[in-house]
Amino acid sequence: MHDDNQVTRRNFIKNSAGAAVALSIPSIIPASAFGANDRVRVAVLGVNGRGQNHISGFSNLSNVELATFCDPDNNILQTRAKEYTAKTGKTVKTENDLRKVFDDKTIDAVSIATPNHWHALAAIWAMQAGKDVYVEKPGSHNLSEGRKMIDAAKKYKRVVQHGVQLRSSVALQEAVKHMRDGLIGNVYMARGLVYKWRPDIGDRGTSPVPEGLNYDLWTGPAEMKPFSKNYVHYDWHWHWNYGNGDIGNQGIHETDMCMWGLGVDTFPEKITSSGGKFLWDDAKETPELLSSSFVYPKEKKIIEFEVRPWMTNEEGGVGIGNIFYGSEGYLVVKGYDFYETFLGKDKKPGPTRKAGGDHFKNFIDAVVARDPKICNGPVETAHLSSGLAHLGNIAYRTGRALTFDPKTEKFVGDDDANKYLTRKYRGPYTIPATV
């Protein structure tokens, strides 16, 4: 038996049949590796929910070949493969174990749409195996994982795209430029809004593991708990063992937009959160309603963030999105591809635009060029936007105002809060101490 802390992706590779192949993968693929007529071979990890969008997104790109689908639920996996064949006439390889995908030297990139608790480990293992990575939001399940992902991307010279597709919106890129150019003056506050319909999920208790599901693989680095239909396949979002609540779900798009629009590239120093469960007596552990404040004293900026789960008014027409407040006006972001501005005391309508973008194409362009700087949502955004959500959740879980040191990425004089910055990993699914 291996000590849990000693089992890493490298140990797995060395002990696997593909050891020589996997270890021979170069850490840098030269730009010439992808010729004009060559395709980037992509594997999609997790094909139940958001993974379907990944399949569709990459299928639309002429220079991409969807090579492999991977999911620990073989029922869903085979269904997706059959759907893909019926739609495209093409066949795709299927795997239950993502480690076999990493050992496949013909795979150039992986697209990760697993539950949150798998995101960082899958990304790091993929980078160690020489793959480029598109990883869904949140990039990390806890704050320490985000820093490890940055370190891995740098060490293995990998292209990493965080799945915050609003970064590729032409309209929102324009909105940020307006704020940088002073359209609404000194931008001092960002508000993030996540008002989504989240009903009672009940409490279905425990039950036998369904046939076809590899529950050990699904659980991965998380603590092993008796199987419950309240976890698999969507409601894991509302359990701390796997998810991060709605601030760490839909909310990552908005935490990212808040930081991008404000122009802050570090974590806040003061964090407060309050909320709880007020509607349903169900199996959810994460709060239904959460209000958080993130203060940047040195920059004189503040982020306010609110999650609401049910019937509610909108703010400035926004239910999912952001509002930025400046000394000369305010700017509203609705969804992923629309903004409008209101200027002066009289709120005179200013510039507005609706226009999207292709976040998957942006990733592939960066892969082909071997240039991470092309990515609109680079690995740093995975750490920052996900980390902001983690800080808000930690303030809620500790029940007090917290002081954070952005340089050390630790809470100041608070051992209890610092315990939430990482987790105990279940071997052999262990984030390596050093990547």
How would the global form be characterised?
globular
Give me the side-by-side strand order of the main sheet. Answer: 14-13-12-11-7-10-9-8-15-16
Output mean pLDDT. Answer: 93
Computed Rg: 21 Å
Let me know the number of strands.
Answer: 16
Within CATH, the superfamily of the largest domain carries the name NAD(P)-binding Rossmann-like Domain
Strand content: 15-25%
**Annotated CATH topology of the largest domain:** Rossmann fold
SS element count, helices: 13
- Mind describing the biggest β-sheet? 10 strands, mixed
Cα-to-Cα separation, first versus last residue: 22 Å
* CATH architectural name of the largest domain: 3-Layer(aba) Sandwich
Low-pLDDT runs of 5+ residues are: 1-32
* CATH class membership of the largest domain: Alpha Beta
Order of helix and strand elements from N to C terminus:
HHEHEHEHEHEHEHEHHEEEEEEEHHEEH
Oligomer: single chain
Whole-number tally of structural domains = 2
Strand-pairing-aware structural class: alpha/beta
